[in-house]
Amino acid sequence: MSDAREGAPRKRGRPARTDAGDGPGARERILTAARAEFAEHGYDKASIRGIAKGAGVDPALVHHYFGPKEKIFGAAVEVDFASALQAQETVTSGGLETVGERLTRYILGVWEAPVTREPLLAIVRSAVANETAAAVFRDLVTVRLMARVAGELDVPAPRLRSELAAAQLVGIALLRHVIKVEPLASADIEQVIAMVAPVVQRHLTEG
Amino acid sequence: MSDAREGAPRKRGRPARTDAGDGPGARERILTAARAEFAEHGYDKASIRGIAKGAGVDPALVHHYFGPKEKIFGAAVEVDFASALQAQETVTSGGLETVGERLTRYILGVWEAPVTREPLLAIVRSAVANETAAAVFRDLVTVRLMARVAGELDVPAPRLRSELAAAQLVGIALLRHVIKVEPLASADIEQVIAMVAPVVQRHLTEG
């Protein structure tokens, strides 16, 4: 991520190292604050000033580490997807016979816990409203996640199939957690997984 | 819709009947302009002034017919769902054995044509970003659309099943038309329908 500095404006110079909040952990605090800012305000209304305030640092330090808002968003999203990728390896390493159940449990599971749901809500809200955020989301989803799943499949049109499976899971997350349609919003998650896993399995390996 | 006037502010009085654009068709022009405004700017940024400008009428007339922004949004969405409902009857009247293919073709079809896609994009963008818009969307989806489909089904948990089917189709629309994930975004729509219809059928009638 060291090349993220390339986009940083230089006209105000390097931020003073005596700024409150600089030092070990500042970068992580900025990313955490960025995810909270994007989740609360969406991409368009999120501000570097708000992110800096949330992290307890000078706005110049945010610029210094990440550059413009687009790059902060990319970095914040990338962290989420990096941890998702680790789990994804678990998903694909367990054999294709049960990949539908594992993928469904994993994706719907990260939407259940508020701590992982909030960054995802930020990504979805931002990507729906803003083309820059959509492009960041698109590249990460296709390159990092679904292309890897598709690479494991031994069927025709594996990428299209993996995206139809993703569409099922993204649609459930949207209706359950964003639009909050009942009875889906209040349904027991194990019941939902039991009903959806066979469909995801079918997309990925059958027909 | 005559009670929509209840929310209209009175302090400026009834708009003068000599206002440019008042008269037959003004109400429909306002709704068309409202859908365009919500589509372009989303719920939060859409303004009554912008809607009035698009319809060629005084902003007071927009207030007069529909009241505050929330009610304009509800009316604009309701028109879309009223026509959707007509088609929905066609979907459910053709027998349960092929309901998956007909529902898939209908829902994905309205997303293919720009003239019907734009209002849907407006609804999705608005509902994702704003709780008021989400509530309008939620009530219309559950009460008007999916509850009717569910009423035709002879399986356990028909409403939950119909929402999982809706989630599959909404997710595809989102990834294909909003996030524009490839290869789904460029895939032949008939190929997509052929791959998805059996899954929707399974949600609605099998297992």
What does this structure look like?
Chains A, B: This is AcrR family transcriptional regulator. Chains A, B: Residues 24-84 form the HTH tetR-type domain. Chains A, B: It holds the Pfam family TetR_N. Chains A, B: Keywords: DNA-binding. Chains A, B: InterPro entries: Homeodomain-like_sf (IPR009057), HTH-type_TetR-like_transc_reg (IPR050109), HTH_TetR (IPR001647), Tet_transcr_reg_TetR-rel_C_sf (IPR036271), TetR_C_16 (IPR041678). The structure is a homodimer of 207-residue chains. By secondary structure, chain A is mostly helical. The first copy, chain A, folds into two domains: 2-68, Arc Repressor Mutant, subunit A (Orthogonal Bundle), CATH 1.10.10.60; 70-205, Orthogonal Bundle (Tetracycline Repressor, domain 2), CATH 1.10.357.10. In chain A, 72% of the residues lie in helices and 0% in strands. Chain A contains nine helices and no strands. Chain A has helices at 26-45, 48-55, 59-66, 69-92, 99-112, 114-129, 131-152, 158-178, 189-205. In chain A, helix 1 packs antiparallel against helix 2, helix 4 runs antiparallel to helix 5 (99-112) and helix 5 runs parallel beside helix 8 (158-178). The first copy, chain A, is elongated. The termini of chain A are far apart. The model of chain A is unreliable at 1-19 (pLDDT under 50). Chains A and B meet through helix 6, helix 7, helix 8 and helix 9 of A and helix 6, helix 7, helix 8 and helix 9 of B.
